[in-house]
């Protein structure tokens, strides 16, 4: 049965059943595949015939995961990688060469910042940062050698947002490749390709898995663009393992119901903390106080599961709050079923300078709260007692 509904697609899309007629897809733990004869081997390696050649190239489990993600995000094709950062590195590596230039959102994950400043810079790729809250500045940064516009929206951890339709029009005007890190929103809440992006990237480690079990990433786009990605990835080798692909594909079956609960809990936490006397600032896309609230409402289904706050008292206030938490986990991860607190200035974004962190709104008192699936009363109670820790 064909369906356009997210939940049905995520649950019912499945690789072809074997002769054993299994109801749930098995794990294909194999590195290689058998060919019927020499001619089939030749045809497969010559790309004249579709099929599995080697699990670094494709595997039934990764193929099922990719097919689901393509259907959910509205993409033609995709490639699954071992981690989210492998997806970003592979995308940069596939499309950029020495002498090229990137315009990137200033608010990016710490490891993405390291790729731009310390890795691709060694290979002659330059970049300029633009602020998500200053869309009027983006066009002026595009140069004759600019090849890519890269953006996180919502950003990590500042929860800043930019209008993707605006960026899509800008990319089209200047013949740029628009790449969107869609990790925080997931395809359930936001579909960048429908808004003008050419490539959408996910760290599947986060909400796609959603339970803190496995690493993974995925790159989604047109068949033509993904062919470039596959050409690079086949030889650089960032492929997702079959076991992790199996986990991630199964996890997609519950993504919608999980995200509904994450978003419901996160909004209640944001509304609660916005009125709290010990909180200096709360950032959440679906709070009316968010600077890009109208954009968030336009391009996102709900606000997501991440709330960023600034605790009064700077780094001491932040540490006191985090050390006072009893149920929340202190971890660098996010998007788990379990609620998590992270201090970005000393962990995920510690490699940025103090000035760089301040520019993107990461203060010493900033804390990223990944709101989990526990009962909302328990989440709020833990936050309240931690804020009142002597």
UniProtKB/TrEMBL annotation:
Q: Could you tell me what reaction this enzyme catalyses?
A: O-succinyl-L-homoserine + hydrogen sulfide = L-homocysteine + succinate
Keyword Amino-acid biosynthesis among record annotations = yes
Pfam family for this entry, one: Cys_Met_Meta_PP
Q: Which pathway, per its entry?
A: Amino-acid biosynthesis; L-methionine biosynthesis via de novo pathway; L-homocysteine from O-succinyl-L-homoserine: step 1/1
Which keywords are on file for this protein?
Amino-acid biosynthesis, Methionine biosynthesis, Pyridoxal phosphate, Transferase
EC number per UniProt = 2.5.1.-
This protein's cofactor list reads: pyridoxal 5'-phosphate
Root EC class: transferase
Looking up InterPro entries in the UniProt record yields: Cys/Met-Metab_PyrdxlP-dep_enz (IPR000277), O-succ-hSer_sulfhydrylase (IPR006234), PyrdxlP-dep_Trfase (IPR015424), PyrdxlP-dep_Trfase_major (IPR015421), PyrdxlP-dep_Trfase_small (IPR015422)
Modified residue annotations for N6-(pyridoxal phosphate)lysine: 206
Q: Which family does it belong to?
A: Belongs to the trans-sulfuration enzymes family. MetZ subfamily.
The protein's job, in short, is: Catalyzes the formation of L-homocysteine from O-succinyl-L-homoserine (OSHS) and hydrogen sulfide.
> Subunit structure, briefly?
Homotetramer.
The entry's protein name is: O-succinylhomoserine sulfhydrylase
Q: Which gene encodes it?
A: metZ
């Amino acid at each position: 049965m064909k369906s356009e509904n997210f939940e049905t697609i995520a649950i019912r899309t499945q690789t072809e059943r074997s002769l054993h007629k299994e109801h749930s897809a098995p794990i294909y733990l194999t590195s290689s595949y058998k060919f019927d004869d020499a001619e089939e081997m030749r045809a497969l390696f010559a790309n004249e015939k579709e099929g599995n050649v080697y699990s670094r190239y494709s595997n039934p489990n990764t193929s099922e995961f990719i097919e689901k993600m393509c259907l959910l995000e509205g993409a033609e094709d995709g490639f699954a990688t071992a981690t989210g950062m492998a997806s970003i590195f592979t995308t940069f590596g596939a499309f950029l060469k020495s002498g090229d230039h990137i315009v990137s959102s200033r608010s990016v994950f710490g490891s993405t910042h390291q790729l731009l400043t310390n890795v691709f810079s060694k290979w002659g790729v330059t970049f300029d940062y633009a602020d998500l809250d200053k869309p009027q500045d983006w066009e002026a940064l595009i140069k004759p050698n600019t090849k890519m516009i890269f953006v996180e929206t919502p950003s990590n951890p500042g929860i800043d947002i930019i209008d993707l339709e605006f960026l899509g029009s800008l990319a089209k005007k200047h013949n740029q490749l628009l790449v969107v890190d869609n990790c925080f929103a997931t395809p359930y809440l936001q579909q960048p390709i429908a808004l003008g992006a050419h490539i959408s990237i996910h760290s599947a480690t986060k909400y796609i898995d959603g339970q803190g079990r496995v690493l993974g990433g995925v790159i989604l786009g047109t068949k033509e663009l993904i062919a470039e990605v596959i050409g690079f990835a086949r030889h650089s080798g960032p492929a997702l393992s079959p076991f992790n692909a199996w986990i991630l594909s199964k996890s997609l079956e519950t993504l919608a119901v999980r995200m509904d609960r994450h978003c419901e809990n996160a909004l209640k936490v944001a509304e609660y903390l916005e009125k709290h006397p010990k909180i200096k600032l709360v950032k959440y896309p679906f709070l009316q106080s968010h600077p890009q609230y109208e954009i968030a409402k336009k391009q996102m289904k709900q606000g997501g599961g991440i709330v960023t706050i600034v605790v009064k008292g700077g780094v001491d206030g932040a540490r006191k709050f985090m050390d006072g938490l009893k149920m929340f986990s202190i971890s660098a991860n996010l998007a788990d079923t379990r609620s998590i607190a992270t201090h970005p200035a000393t962990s995920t974004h510690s490699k940025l300078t103090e000035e760089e962190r301040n520019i993107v709104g990461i203060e010493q008192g900033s804390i990223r709260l990944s709101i989990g699936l526990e009962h909302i009363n328990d989440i709020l109670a833990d936050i309240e007692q931690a804020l009142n820790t002597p």
